[in-house]
Design the sequence.
């Protein structure tokens, strides 16, 4: 009976794809609307990315203009109810969008591109950034991104929170992957700052409830999760995880979508899904049994067994383990050598190795996200998250 009920809900969730662009944030809309329009859509997407990288804050008035043009370009004339008088920020956004009336989508797109281009030139000419500092990409708050030696390094940067992934970090990672897929690096590397690689999903993500209530929260979370994991499935260049310390939850599951996983001997790998009333994501319900065999995958994904780096290596999740004392030096020497290999050959080899599974992975990701959408509303999950938050005095 549960299965019948669930499949009905799954079917409803598939239908949600059609309205996805009206529910999610710009970064996600960017991801799903790529094929919708012609040539200038590319310029528009690139302008959307460039906004995130502006070196100078353009100020609220310009931000509202950008917001309004973005909405008009992607959704057309303002079509949402006017926010209440005291909802000041959303009302200002609504007013700006509504003021564009019936401006055609194409014109809005062009105006957006022009506005960003103006902002970029004034931002570039006014900034006096030294070449050394240019290695670090601006515009990210939860990540530190550097490009050097043909390697783009994406470092999770919330060390005080053990690099837990909050909504902003999910969105910034998607943008960073989009940019890295197009930059001139040959390989892309993820790592964590501080003592953790990542403590997984930020459990306070569950506390910020929108006006539509917990159902809307769960629906948006499932869309975000699905788009996030899709970015990893589709990433075209060799993707490397440099696991500098413990890894939990989604930061572990998506390792199955990486091409190399190097771990410090201090790293551990933990997926406490049942403990949290949750279920596997990141395609791990498929990749883990494939990588380590069903028995070991079940131990991790259902029973939450925490693996040491050595165990994760023995089970095929980790490519190689290094002593913590020499970890950084050894790994980066290795990666610098790999990054000099011919870019196209590596890219095409990855395609050959991964492409025949892509469709399957997308379907699995959709199913896992949809099941989690239901789980997040369950008493089991709510109680577990409340428990963590109250222990940490977040409530
Ligand atoms: C779009 C949604 C997609 C959702 C996808 C779903 C994914 C599923 C998962 O990822 S499940 C995994 C969820 N993660 C956890 O369950 C880990 C929770 N954290 C802990 O158990 C511990 O914090 C620890 C073991 C990671 C570290 O313990 P330690 O005692 O060393 O450190 P603290 O607990 O004091 O942590 C320091 C501060 O960091 C905060 N923090 C750590 N992890 C998280 C987290 N996952 N979410 C939110 N906050 C986290 C912790 O609260 C401390 O904050 P404080 O200093 O302000 O108290």
Sequence:
């Amino acid at each position: 009976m549960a299965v019948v009920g669930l499949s009905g809900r799954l079917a409803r969730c598939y239908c949600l794809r059609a309205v996805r662009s009206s529910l999610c944030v710009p970064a996600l809309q960017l991801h799903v609307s790529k094929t919708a329009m012609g040539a200038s859509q590319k310029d528009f997407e690139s302008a959307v990315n460039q906004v995130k990288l502006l070196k100078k804050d353009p100020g609220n008035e310009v931000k509202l203009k950008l917001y309004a043009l973005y909405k008009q370009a992607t959704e057309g004339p303002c079509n949402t109810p006017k926010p209440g008088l005291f909802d000041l920020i959303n009302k200002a956004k609504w007013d700006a969008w509504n003021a564009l009336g019936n401006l055609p989508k194409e014109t809005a797109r062009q105006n957006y591109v022009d506005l960003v281009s103006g902002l970029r030139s004034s931002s570039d000419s006014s900034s006096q950034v030294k070449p050394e500092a240019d290695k670090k990409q601006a515009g990210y708050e939860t990540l530190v991104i550097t490009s050097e030696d043909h390697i783009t390094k994406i470092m999770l940067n919330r060390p005080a929170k053990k690099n837990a992934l909050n909504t902003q970090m999910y969105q910034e990672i998607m943008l960073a992957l989009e940019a890295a897929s197009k930059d001139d690096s040959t390989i892309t590397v993820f790592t964590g700052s501080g003592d953790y690689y990542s403590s997984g999903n930020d459990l306070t993500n569950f506390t910020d409830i929108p006006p539509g209530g917990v159902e809307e929260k769960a629906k948006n979370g499932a869309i975000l999760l699905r788009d996030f994991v899709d970015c990893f499935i589709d990433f075209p260049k060799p993707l490397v995880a440099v696991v500098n310390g413990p890894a939990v939850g989604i930061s572990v599951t998506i390792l199955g979508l990486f091409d190399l996983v190097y771990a410090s001997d201090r790293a551990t790998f933990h997926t406490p899904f049942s403990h949290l009333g949750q279920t596997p994501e990141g395609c791990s319900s498929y990749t883990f049994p494939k990588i380590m065999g069903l028995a070991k995958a079940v131990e991790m994904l259902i029973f939450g067994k925490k693996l040491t780096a050595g165990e994760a290596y023995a089970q095929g999740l980790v490519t190689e383990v290094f002593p913590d004392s020499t970890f950084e030096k050894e790994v980066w020497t290795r990666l610098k050598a790999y990054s000099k290999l011919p870019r196209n050959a590596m890219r095409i080899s990855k395609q050959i190795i991964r492409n025949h599974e892509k469709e399957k992975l997308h379907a699995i990701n959709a199913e896992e996200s949809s099941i989690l959408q239901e789980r997040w509303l369950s008493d089991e999950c709510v109680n577990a998250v409340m428990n963590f938050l109250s222990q940490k005095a977040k409530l």
The two ends are 36 Å apart (CA to CA). Residues 143-393 form a domain with the 2-enoyl-CoA Hydratase; Chain A, domain 1 fold (CATH 3.90.226.10).
